[in-house]
Amino acid sequence: MSSAIGLMLSVNPDLSVSQIKKILYSSVTDLKSSYLSCGLLNAGLSVQKAKYKVFKNSVVHLTGIEKLSGNRVKVKWNNLNVYGPEKMLIYRSASKNGKYENIKSIPGEDNCTYIDTNLTTGKTYYYKIRVAMKYGGGYKYTPYSEIKSIKLK
What are the helix (H) ranges across the chain? Predict the structure, then answer.
């Protein structure tokens, strides 16, 4: 158990003792037995829950959109306050309140730009992004960034 706690603190050093206990108890796999009432600690899930406590309040900021030659735009963001991003998801729409399509998923935390290509002159494009982390058998997400737009002239 001390190893699991050490790993939890390595991804979230601000956890209190009561938070650690709550995460540990909620990460136990019940071992059904007619003789015992016990459980098996799922250390991996404990670490994911500890990381998610920080991650879920992260906000990624869309810092700008820049027109490039050849009907391309560069989308830029800042993820300095996002803990442990595993993939960046970029969304685009043809209207601010329209349906946004996930146009790119970029792994890793070092890349903070994306170049969108094959756009149409005279159209306005709207962008937003969010970040994902692995959690259980799927992903958990930060809230969407603010929306920024650019009109191609």
Answer: 2-11, 17-26, 43-55
